[in-house]
Amino acid sequence: MDFSWGRSTSPRQSVELSSPEDNTVLQPESLEGEKKEDGSHLTRTLTPSSETKFKPEDHEFTDEREDSSSELVEGFDSGVSGFIIILTFVSSISGFMFGYDTGYISSALTSIKQDLSHKTLSYGDKEILTSATSLGALISSCFAGVAADIFGRKPSIMGSNILFLVGIILQICADKYWQMAAGRLIMGFGVGIGSLVAPLFIGEIAPKTIRGRLTVINSLWLTGGQLIAYAVGAGLTHVHNGWRILIGLALIPVALQFSFFFFLPDTPRFYVMKGNTDAARRVLRRSYRNAPDYLIDAKVKELCDMNNAVEGKNVLDKVWKMTKELHVNPANFRALIIACGLQGIQQFTGWNSLMYFSGTIFETVGISNSAAVSIIVSGTNFVFTIIAFFAIDKIGRRPILLVGIFGMMVALIVCSIAFHFLGVKFNGADAVVLHTGFTAWGIVIIVFIVVFAAFYALGIGTVPWQQSELFPQNVRGVGTSYATATNWAGSLVIAATFLTMLQNITPTGTFALFAALAAVSFIFVFFLYPELSGLELEEVQSVLKDGFNIKKSKALAKKRKKQVAAAKKKVSSSEIIEEDD
Ligand SMILES: O[C@H]1[C@H](O)[C@@H](O)[C@H](O)[C@@H](O)[C@H]1O
């Protein structure tokens, strides 16, 4: 994995590299000429951006920019420090739990049989068990952004671990249906907090140039968690009480994350919000070992300036002001439309209906080893998330979203037609297959569900979790809360209605509805989602200042990519010269 693009191999180069080919690239006279032990020049005068508050309206939509102190600090390390990698991996255990806990339900539903309240689960029962977690996540995600601002990112994640623990224990001991549902609900509170705070945490500790990719690591854990849940579920299908073991295994990541966080700090941004600049400095010091002290100080100051931009007597007053700012500032409001729109599209195009109920669907269409097919589907989701990891910054968010949604739409149409010819009828707990045996249409369905999974993971499964880049720091917590809540509201609706839809409007109608929603989604993305890859936070805000500016954003992103490529070239040629010397 190439984590090092856009950064240099020596401190001197990194300063020059931060804004390659810009008019604002450091001029020799702005370097103060301080020497490091190795003899290289270190310093430069601080740019205005580290001394002034950021206001989008002050920034023209231009391709000129200045090096912020963040870029300068980040430029001093070649590659990402081990400390940042550890923080990223520990916080993305939340992603794993999100995936595992939403993933195991598919096989658990087929193996619970009559273990709960001595009855066979009806479609309604299955929907309640599944959607209880989405409901819990929806409720907690409404408050998680604010909780993360009041108590901290790290305590919020550790709090989610406790909710996981309680929820999981309730489920593994359940012999009553309602105890199981309560366990799923409480576990959902934990899932909702983790789904919001982990990407926020990663976004705040990640160097800007690779923020997109580090955030996708959380999605990789997520889809990996779903895949593992399916695989373990398949292995335990015929084990007595296997579903209890399947759920109990989720305690391992919970315990690991909780213990690791005991020894790890919160984000510098949160420490600054709490006025603890010393702690912020310490975390930055560990994150960017090679950066000189004065740049670390400048970075702390930059964070303080951004924090001061949110005025208020106390935390609640600040939260209220942030919420207001989110709605009255046009750039913020556009960001909100995009963030919530993408999260809504992710859910309402139907992916999670497969995630939650693929076992039930495949069993119904006559596949004897439904668990194996479910593994192929979630494996495809995982593999294509890896592809998204490489494409998201290089190819850009817009192309992968548009291609992805279009491909999903085609796959959904084919599935809808194939279900028609397969002639299957979902009818309460017992589905009726009108044709006996497994037909060619069954194969078409499986193939196109896999195609659907691939296009989904490539774009809309991954990009919406980049949500924090849409918002400036002062409204990020509240903005991402709205977007995450939209995601869980969509997940809840799908989980609570999918099986009923199969019964009432037939599988053909259900898949056709998802295809129609995919078509509307394509239009939404085409007209409203600007290209944000490679853009600075300030630039995202100025892009959204007076419209959605799709054309201009594409041109700007292209220019930034060229600049990074040119900078890379510059580094490698200077490395060759150094080697020759
Ligand atoms: O990004 C994730 C991922 O795509 C998962 O597979 C899905 O189950 C989640 O709902 C979604 O938020």
Automatic annotation (TrEMBL):
Entry keyword set: Membrane, Transmembrane, Transmembrane helix, Transport
Region (Disordered): 1-70
Membrane topology: Multi-pass membrane protein
NCBIfam families on file: SP
UniProt keyword ATP-binding, yes or no: no
BP terms from Gene Ontology: myo-inositol import across plasma membrane
Record's GO cellular component terms: membrane
SUPFAM superfamilies on file: MFS general substrate transporter
Family note: Belongs to the major facilitator superfamily. Sugar transporter (TC 2.A.1.1) family.
Molecular function terms from GO: myo-inositol:proton symporter activity
Source organism (scientific name): Zygosaccharomyces bailii (strain CLIB 213 / ATCC 58445 / CBS 680 / BCRC 21525 / NBRC 1098 / NCYC 1416 / NRRL Y-2227)
Entries under Gene3D superfamilies matching the protein: MFS general substrate transporter like domains (1.20.1250.20)
InterPro entries noted in UniProt: MFS_dom (IPR020846), MFS_sugar_transport-like (IPR005828), MFS_trans_sf (IPR036259), Myo-inositol_Transporter (IPR050814), Sugar/inositol_transpt (IPR003663), Sugar_transporter_CS (IPR005829)
Primary location class: membrane
Protein name as it appears in the record: BN860_11364g1_1
Catalytic reactions on record: myo-inositol(out) + H(+)(out) = myo-inositol(in) + H(+)(in)
Domain Major facilitator superfamily (MFS) profile per the UniProt entry, residue ranges: 87-533
Record's compositionally biased regions (Basic and acidic residues): 32-41
Ranges that cross the membrane: 80-100, 128-150, 162-179, 185-202, 214-233, 245-264, 331-351, 371-392, 399-421, 441-465, 485-505, 511-529
Bias (Polar residues) ranges: 1-27, 42-51
Cellular location(s): Membrane
Domain of life, source organism: Eukaryota
